[in-house]
Write a structure and sequence with these properties.
The protein has 194 residues and is α+β, with helices and mostly antiparallel strands. It is 41% helix and 9% strand. The protein is built from seven helices and four strands, in the order αααααββββαα. A hairpin with a 2-residue loop joins strand 2 and strand 3. The radius of gyration is 27 Å and the shape is elongated. It starts with 12 loop residues before the first helix and ends with a helix.
Length: 194
């Protein structure tokens, strides 16, 4: 069996895996720290600190003394990239660590298989389009409002309700029924006309 080595920086990952006789995503190949740093865009110092403190430990092979090389799987690199993106978004390393620990305590072994979102302060796990969980508040559920969905809902409700033109009062205070689609077309036409 041959030892995985750092590929030429210009060699694409799928080709490197093919040369090694393995799939990039199956964990049968490993990437040394220097390669991981280049792939993710972090310093070796960050990588080393995150491994020593348990934030992202290499799953192929951890260092076991002086002279041994850590080997990171493709999925490890994905997790490292997520951590970097959260840092770039302004989330503190302490909050990132708490979020990852919360996921691990709930039994999430494959961190690369989940979706995280952040507002720059906290970290949320997106379980489905309807369910988002705040990982820093003990797994408290939060909700989002899709503006596009609200727009369509209001547009549908207005389709059978009366409307009045904004420019002129209607004669004798009568409501004028205007199709929502026609009203939008009329507004666009007025804007184009100046």
């Amino acid at each position: 069996m041959h030892e995985p080595r750092d590929p030429d920086p210009g060699t694409p990952l799928p080709l490197v895996a093919e040369q090694a006789g393995a799939s990039v995503e199956d964990g049968a190949v490993g990437y040394r720290g220097v390669t991981a740093c280049h792939a993710v865009g972090i310093s070796y110092r960050q990588l080393d600190y995150w491994a020593r403190t348990g934030l992202v430990v290499p799953s192929v092979r951890d260092a076991s003394g002086s002279g041994t090389q850590r080997l990171y799987s493709f999925r490890d690199l994905v997790v490292l990239k997520v951590v970097k993106r959260l840092l770039d978004a302004g989330v503190s390393l302490q909050n990132i660590r708490r979020a990852i620990e919360t996921l691990r305590s709930r039994g999430v072994a494959d961190l690369a298989g989940i979706t995280l979102i952040s507002d720059g302060t906290t970290v949320y796990e997106c379980r489905s389009p309807e369910e988002v969980v705040d990982l820093l508040q003990g797994g408290q559920g939060v909700f989002g409002i899709a503006i596009g969905g609200a727009f369509k809902e209001v547009q549908g409700s207005l389709s059978h309700l009366p409307a009045e033109p904004a420019g002129e009062p209607s004669p004798a205070g009568e409501a004028v029924v205007v199709d929502a689609g026609d009203e939008l077309a009329a507004r666009r036409a007025r804007r184009r006309a100046g």
